[in-house]
Amino acid sequence: MEVSVQIYYVSAERLWEANKPLPQNVHVSANVSIVGLEEAEGKLVLPFVASITYNPSVAQISLKGRAIVSGEKEELQKVQEDYKKHLPPPVGLLQTITNASLVEAVILSKTVGVPPPIPLPSFPPPQQLKGEKEKLTYIG
């Protein structure tokens, strides 16, 4: 199954005053909803809406688009049947839509000056052995 994602609507709004520092602990949640299913030229077209919300309410990001799915006839029929039965879409399909939406949302979050909607890597502090002094090193 091949999935192509097209985003045709983006909206980002900073709700927190620009001159006021953002809170320390901002929780970000993302939601992707497939809102329809159409068949066109032997492919499936699935319109979707992606929403990213921040808590406390510092910003909101919305995206709308469509996923165009092509592949084996049996695969497409299963996607259609599952949709009609209100079953979740295949993981690969939902992951592709989510990834494309989050990439776009990261750019929008930078534009409005809020934390990106993906977790940034964090590294634990290095552990020292008892009695060992901290060694400073410089690699350059």
What's a concise summary of this model?
The chain is 24% helix and 35% strand. The N and C termini lie far apart (46 Å).
Draw up the topology in text.
Elements: E1 2-14, E2 27-34, E3 38-40, E4 43-55, E5 59-70, H1 73-84, H2 91-112
Antiparallel strand pairs: 1-5, 2-4, 3-4, 4-5
Tell me what you see in this structure.
- Helices cover 24% and strands 35% of the residues.
- The chain has helices at 73-84, 91-112, and strands spanning 2-14, 27-34, 38-40, 43-55, 59-70.
- Strands 1, 2, 3, 4 and 5 form a 5-stranded antiparallel sheet that branches.
- With 140 residues, the protein is of the alpha+beta class.
- The chain has one domain: Bacterial Protein-export protein SecB, CATH 3.10.420.
- It starts with a strand and ends in a 28-residue tail after the last helix.
- It is extended.
- It contains 2 helices and 5 strands.
**N-to-C span:** 46 Å
**Biggest sheet, in brief?**
5 strands, antiparallel
Rg measurement, Å: 21 Å
Question: How large a portion of the residues is in β-strands, by DSSP E?
Answer: 35-45%
Task: Provide the CATH architecture.
Answer: Roll
Number of strands: 5
Which class in CATH terms?
Alpha Beta
Estimate the mean pLDDT confidence: 89
The oligomeric state is: single chain
The number of helical runs is 2
Question: CATH topology, what is it called?
Answer: Bacterial Protein-export protein SecB
Give the low-confidence spans.
Answer: none
Shape annotation: extended
